[in-house]
Amino acid sequence: MLSNHLQNGMETAKLIWSRLPNSEVEADGIAAGDFSRIKKDDGSTVESLDYEVIENYAYRQEQAKRGKVYMAYSVVVKWLMALLIGIGTALAAVFINLSVENFAGWKYSWTFNLIQKSYFAGFLVYTLINLALVLSSVYIVTQFSPEAAGSGIPEIKGYLNGIDTHGILLFRTLVGKIFGSIGSVGGGLALGKEGPLVHIGACIASMLGQARSTKYHLRTRWLQIFTSERDRRDLVTCGCAAGVAAAFRAPVGGVLFALEEVTSWWRSQLMWRVFFTSAIVGVVVRTAMAWCKSGKCGHFGSGGFIIWDISGGQEDYSFQELLPMAVIGVIGGLLGALFNQLTFHIAYWRRNYLHKRGNRVKVIEACIVSLITSLISFGLPLFRKCTPCPEADANSGIECPRRPGMYGNYVNFYCSDKEYNDLATIFFNTQDDAIRNLFSAKTIHEFSAQSLLTFLVMFYSLAVVTFGTAVPAGQFVPGIMIGSTYGRLVGMFVVNFYQKLNIEEGTYALLGAASFLGGSMRMTVSLCVIMVEISNNLKFLPLIMLVLLISKAVGDAFNEGLYEEQARLRGIPLLESRPKYQMRNMTAKEASGNQQVVYFPRVVKVVDVLSILRSNNHNGFPVIDHSRSGETLVIGLILRSHLLVLLQSKVDFQHSPLPFNSRDGPVPISRHNLTEFVKPVSSKGISIDDIHLTPDDLEMYIDLVPFLNPSPYVVPEDMSLTKVYTLFRQLGLRHLLVVPRASRVIGMISRKDLLIEDHEDTTTIELQSTSVRDHQNDRRMPRRKDAEQPLLDGLIV
Amino acid sequence: MLSNHLQNGMETAKLIWSRLPNSEVEADGIAAGDFSRIKKDDGSTVESLDYEVIENYAYRQEQAKRGKVYMAYSVVVKWLMALLIGIGTALAAVFINLSVENFAGWKYSWTFNLIQKSYFAGFLVYTLINLALVLSSVYIVTQFSPEAAGSGIPEIKGYLNGIDTHGILLFRTLVGKIFGSIGSVGGGLALGKEGPLVHIGACIASMLGQARSTKYHLRTRWLQIFTSERDRRDLVTCGCAAGVAAAFRAPVGGVLFALEEVTSWWRSQLMWRVFFTSAIVGVVVRTAMAWCKSGKCGHFGSGGFIIWDISGGQEDYSFQELLPMAVIGVIGGLLGALFNQLTFHIAYWRRNYLHKRGNRVKVIEACIVSLITSLISFGLPLFRKCTPCPEADANSGIECPRRPGMYGNYVNFYCSDKEYNDLATIFFNTQDDAIRNLFSAKTIHEFSAQSLLTFLVMFYSLAVVTFGTAVPAGQFVPGIMIGSTYGRLVGMFVVNFYQKLNIEEGTYALLGAASFLGGSMRMTVSLCVIMVEISNNLKFLPLIMLVLLISKAVGDAFNEGLYEEQARLRGIPLLESRPKYQMRNMTAKEASGNQQVVYFPRVVKVVDVLSILRSNNHNGFPVIDHSRSGETLVIGLILRSHLLVLLQSKVDFQHSPLPFNSRDGPVPISRHNLTEFVKPVSSKGISIDDIHLTPDDLEMYIDLVPFLNPSPYVVPEDMSLTKVYTLFRQLGLRHLLVVPRASRVIGMISRKDLLIEDHEDTTTIELQSTSVRDHQNDRRMPRRKDAEQPLLDGLIV
Fold first, then answer.
1. In whole angstroms, what separates CA A548 from the centre of its chain?
2. How far, in Å, CA of B339 to CA of A685, rounded?
3. Cα–Cα distance between A574 and A568 in angstroms, integer?
4. Cβ contacts of residue B255 below 8 Å, gap of 6+?
5. Of A179, A200, A151, A130, which is closest to residue A475 (Cα–Cα)?
6. Do you find a cis peptide bond into B401, omega within 30 degrees of 0?
7. What does the alpha-carbon distance between residue B248 and residue B529 come to, in Å, rounded to a whole number?
8. CA A18, CA A20: separation in Å to the nearest integer?
9. Contacts of B281 (CB under 8 A, 6+ apart)
10. Taking the CA of residue B170 as centre, how many other CA atoms within 13 Å lie in the half-sphere pointing to its CB?
11. How far apart are the first and last CA of chain A?
12. B748, A618: Cβ pair inside 8 Å?
């Protein structure tokens, strides 16, 4: 047992030792206790984040120091950050696109040239280039940045939901993601670069906000205003939006994606900044593309960057078409849900069996997938007969067959002049071009149903198998490929069925793409806007909306969205927006369980701190003190991470078991820089094993008052868990104290108590000043006089 | 003094009488005390709303009764509601547009015909038709539905922020808004129909959700699931989005408008439904227009419904253009802020001086404004010289002069053949057509700078004067008019300055429109999407974004947004999204002020209830009780409105001062229908004057336990007001109890305590079931066994 001396030699506080449940590490599960650090089987860990601004004495002191100038400065820095995030993400996107387009361009032009002489030589070169690119990608990922594998969206979603997966926002992850994406996308695998770009945006944002590196011993003082998890979260939100805006050239879609898909909270001030970031991305990407148009960037310029302009397509739609469109929605929901289910099972198997055997297995796996992909995409079109070109239509401006090395429809592959291979048009092509071909208008009957079906089955299987290999991989482009294929199939039937109507197959391909993404990712508004922005056609907005609604509803009947499934698989415990049904019948007390609470007294012995921290893995501890009348009071919450900082720095140790008194010397907190208490992003922070204390140190005391959060959010014990959940999630909390019912009410706060006028805004006040308002101002304006004094000095007897 | 018998004859609770500040009514101010009912000078009142679901015993009992079938039924009804809101709002929009276009069409064709013979006869007919339309509008509004005046957006914004302005969502308001809009817009005033359409959508939503009318004695049982303010708020949100979607044919813009501008909270489940409503609106409006295209709807069909297609315009933009575009942003910010300031002062003057003189003054005012508008719009073009038509360009398809009775550019007014009047083209035209002309591409030098400047000054003045007359009035279309005029002016200078570039004046007009709306309304994302959707051109998205950002930033330097200014003027106390700076140094206790709390004991005498309700205007009262050990405990919060229902129904009166015991008879709450406790929307609910009690009744008792909210949100007394504000606003609260610091902590809730698996979802659990998760489920799953028992029976000794 520990003995704790309380101030003034009052009675020893009885520390209630917690009967902790097993705090061991479980594979993919959630460790009991707090999420102080959960190791997973692959060595990665996740940690809860606290988005509440901890208003301890240090924070208040820092705030007090900040004048108007500082506030203006901080606003300027925040906007500058948004600007830099936008520029950085846009440049990364341009670099990736430029590289991918050039690699793919060289690959296809070499192959086409060789095919004229020998199929086998062509196949060999094609396969080897793909293999080399994929190999470089998987090598970078496995050797250098394991966190760069996959799309990264589930992890970013987790981060913004309040769960930090270690290593997800580091510089090495950024580098691995950029170069890995180039390899995996350039290597022709059935994956896209859009998910990784979102991750890249988030990494850039996080690094800019950090503006220092513990590893590389870099520090800038001027950016230390981003000291709370909340500021960092805001930056990462901007980064996400920038990523989507850059990936799809869809600025509004980016804002909405950040809003709908990744964040669990929202502030309208932030929207304003996210919006700015997206606009900057739009301008920078456009400028870069305009610069490249003159041919300075090799193959990049004419192709690349997914904008599938279908504005030349169908002008209008009629009522009869609503039924086939609904059918597309249903197919999308079914295939999307199936995709989620299959990828979940395969990814589960990979994590638990295959990838446990080490990096070599991951490399071999990626290479095998690459070989299979090359074989199928080169081999299948060979079995397909050539189709004679349709009669030339001068107005459409579409050449058949297209000239070698150019982008466009009607790839002739091995066919003779005036012929083309419809399977090669979609299979033996970059994915961006394939989608452009599928979406293309005025090309009725370009594809045969047989080719489309073959492609659908093969590509769907490839996408499922590729998902989860150790390379950066997005699911947007494969999803659009799959969806537009069956969409075009349905479109072909509709064209045959309603021969009188002016129907374009490309429109149905667009709706198919929307339906598959809706059925798999379950986004609505953001996906809809993204689809509209990439297809550059507003006419079908209501149709896209309806198709999305149907496919999401069908998909929801089977399983969760792709990102939620993957987050669960990776042990990222997301809090959903809706509380569970059974929470209605539970109370806060029941939810907090049998676990007993570990208290700290206000002044605590160092040895006791150490042994409490060692003996459990809680992350926050209530601190109690005694009032003048001897009554016990909860005076705040102290975080494990802050205690570790205090133990490591040792400057706050004192010999006396009496609480700190300002007459004794300088205020303790002034010995610290506020940033010391902030955990570096995505790192593990200080561990208890890093702390080395002498026996003398152990006998000293710490007064915790300056370092604790004096007013954590509390809920009464019998509050319904639904309400607790809402509170917890909406405010982005990490801890919530469950307290007994109050014995009295000190006051009631209603709306009028929160309406305080800004005094700067004198003109408007003048008009409004009624007696009540003035009275209210008089009553409320006195600022806390003791703002410079420790908050809880009143407790010192 | 009142004496209160507590249960078991325990000691009398000391009721602390509040020293209430003056609860009198102040003109436009905020009454002290709670917002139980604030009368304003014009006789309207506002009231706070509580969006927290009050989980009293009645609610829990209702929940317990609801099985799976009921849940499914409620989901179906909610979606059905969304569908009906969409259809209803779309039909209202079509009706308004159809009427306006026809009235305006007849008006202009008659006038044009008469002009050929006599200017004066033409002017007379024009003026009289305008006057008649405006008169009908102002008559409907003043006599029938005073709440229909203005745009309604500030009130709807207030409603969704938690403030109910009485009468704002009634049937008569809906009717007045629809017919009033037709008159005011058809009468050619400088106002639009878009704001009113948002209000109309909200009214339709609210009425559908209510599905009963106390006034007309209608009741439907099947829709009584919308029993909480929160459900109704969700419906109104859908209605808002539907209104914008219908007004601008901008479904995504509607969703974003509801999200950004009007709601202060957001749930992603709701987004899904809002999205559906918008999509339905899009489909219905499109269908109606397709039906009208064949000429079945008179003048409606070719014109009407603002979609200003500028897709034929400028293809690209160059860097040199960014400077003039930024200039447009700055002008927009300045003119927008000036507009807000002028309208605020004029509206203030109107409310406090002019409109106090009764309805006759309002009618005369509107008529005078109508006469001035007619005079200016007919007279000014007469002073303008005719311009010869430009050389015909066969490709552009634009006729000069346009044929009489048609829509288009180059109005010839009084000019001869091959000539047109540029001022008449924008002034003597419906506003939709004028905007179409200003946005039009391939019409360089159509307008002279002199005409545009004249129009800008005159129309700006008209818009300022018209704003605030007693007719339904939106500010979107006037804003677009003003903005596109100076935008086109800037465009003309740019065309002259950069003669080499391919620049369209219409593009600058579009940017100008965006900048003025941004400078006045201060929306960003939603406005941007609306502008893109109405101009049907995605290419200028980043430019619109940047212009909006600049104009909003410039405007923010001067004053608040238009809706916030107007809400303030109307005494609607909106809680802004950002807490005020000085709140950082205040605590919850300071905010709740000196006002002392009025408690109720658990079992209270009827006469005491009555006298407490009479003696103050608080809206919620804490209820206290004594535990077994004699300690006082706060057991919940009872609302004034619920107490009034209890007093009126009398069924819960009991003779004994002992608390209710289930052995004595039926559970009290089962004598009530849950809907009895819900205040009908936008009505004043039961007043204390409606209650008539006999002397016998007064001597009886009520046990409050079944009717109180057992777990209102609480904050500790020294929590920073910033945190309190966030909590209050994010959760949409009406009351927050300030309690003393807790003496102990019962438990801590962290993320893991809130992760409860759904048991239905067996397949995924199977994969995930680690020992911990199972263990957690075991521990947490026991539902409250006494769910059928009153919650606080444990307190009965």
1. 22
2. 53
3. 8
4. A525, B241, B245, B271, B274, B275, B278
5. A151
6. yes
7. 11
8. 5
9. B86, B89, B90, B93, B242, B245, B246, B251, B254
10. 20
11. 27
12. yes
Burial (CB count within 10 angstroms: exposed 0-12, middle 13-18, buried 19+), residue A65: exposed
**A337 to chain B, closest Cα gap in Å:** 13
Query: Distance between CA atoms of A179 and A141, rounded to whole angstroms?
Result: 9
Closest CA in chain B for residue A720: B711
Question: Is B521 part of the contact surface with chain A (CB cutoff 8 Å)?
Answer: no
- Per residue in B56-66, is it b (16+ CB within 10 Å) or e — as a string? bbbbbbbbeee
Strand-strand pairing, A212-213 and B600-601: unpaired
Query: Are B573 and A751 inside 8 Å of each other by CB?
Result: yes
Contact B480, B516 (CB under 8 A): yes
The pLDDT score that the predictor gives to residue B179 is: 95
Q: Under a CB-based contact definition with an 8 Å cutoff, are residues A208 and A85 in contact?
A: yes
Question: What is the pairing mode between strands B212-213 and A701-703?
Answer: unpaired
Closest CA to A339 of A489, A517, A571: A517
**DSSP states of A689-746 as a string?**
GG----HHHHT-EEE-GGGSBS---EEETTSBHHHHHHHHHHTT-S-EEEEPPPS---
Q: Is A28 on the interface with B (CB under 8 A)?
A: yes
Q: Can you tell me which residue has the tokens 């003034």?
A: A8
By the 8 A CB rule, do B587 and B1 touch? no
Query: Does A618 lie at the interface with B, CB-CB under 8 angstroms?
Result: yes
Name the nearest CA neighbour of A343 among A26, A570, A134. A570
Chain A residues whose CB is inside 8 A of the B755 CB are 30, 573, 575
- pLDDT tens-digit readout, A22-45: 222 222 233 333 444 444 445 556
DSSP assignments along A616-633, one per residue = ---SEEEEEEE-TTS-EE
Mean pLDDT for the stretch of residues B615-627: 83
Instruction: Find the closest chain A residue to B712 by CA distance.
Output: A719
Question: Does the structure show a pLDDT above 90 at B486?
Answer: yes
Res A387: pLDDT: 82
> Quick one: three-class SS letters along B72-132?
HHHHHHHHHHHHHHHHHHHHHHHHHHHHHHHHHHHHHHHHHHHHCCCHHHHHHHHHHHHHH
Q: Tell me the three state secondary structure of residue B146.
A: helix
Return phi, psi of residue A637, to 5°: -130, 130
B334 C-beta neighbours (distance < 10 Å), count? 18
Contacts of A316 (CB under 8 A, 6+ apart): A502, A539, B290
**In the numeric block, which tokens belong to residue B17?**
């009488």
Q: Could you check whether the bond before residue A401 is cis, i.e. omega within 30 degrees of 0?
A: yes
Torsion angle, alpha carbons of A187, A189, A193, A196, to 10: -100
Task: Compute chain B's Rg from CA coordinates.
Answer: 30
pTM value? 0.82
A220-263 per-position pLDDT tens digit = 554 555 567 778 888 899 999 999 999 888 888 888 888 876 66
Q: How far apart are CA A742 and CA A8, in angstroms?
A: 28
Least confident of A250-259, A408-417, B22-31, B242-251: B22-31
- Residues making up chain B, counted from first to last: 797
Nearest CA in chain B to A533: B538
Rounded to two decimals, the ipTM of the complex is 0.77
- Indicate which of B623, B749, B780, B789 best probes the interface with A, i.e. most A CBs within 10 Å of its own CB: B749
Q: How many CB atoms lie within 10 A of CB B370?
A: 27
Q: What is the DSSP string of B487-546?
A: HHHHHHHHHHHSTTS---HHHHHHHHHHHHHHHHH---HHHHHHHHHHHT--TTHHHHHH
Q: Taking residues B468-479, what's their average pLDDT?
A: 90
Half-sphere exposure of A53 toward its Cβ, with a 13 Å CA cutoff? 23
Chain B residue with minimal CA distance to A54?
Answer: B723
Phi, psi (degrees; rounded to nearest 5) at A738: -95, 120
